[in-house]
UniProtKB/TrEMBL annotation:
It comes from the Bacteria. This is PRC-barrel domain-containing protein. GO terms for biological process: photosynthesis, light reaction. Residues 11-78 form the PRC-barrel domain. One of its GO terms (cellular component) is plasma membrane light-harvesting complex.
Amino acid sequence: MSLDDRLVKSGDLIGVAVTDPKGHKLGVIREVFVDRDAGIGRYVAVEPAGLFTGGKYHPLPWRILTFDDKGQAYATDLSKERFKDSPAYDRDQLSKASYGWAEQVERYFEG
């Protein structure tokens, strides 16, 4: 696979599903957070699947996702329960670096 085959436009990531190990949909990508100094994607904010999600988004580290060509989704080893228990934030909280959500997310996924 060439480099050109692996490149994706940021706008094409919005709305892509994130699935658990069994292929069940956990949610969809709503935001992508890029490290402006390193120039790489660090997190995706996932809106949970289903109704009544409470307007919260679950930031997932990019490193725990792999693209599933067959399913045209990003797969993760997270179970549905671990995903539900992961840190969740509203849009206002995600927009403020001072909130410290990235550090909270890193602590959760390191443990």
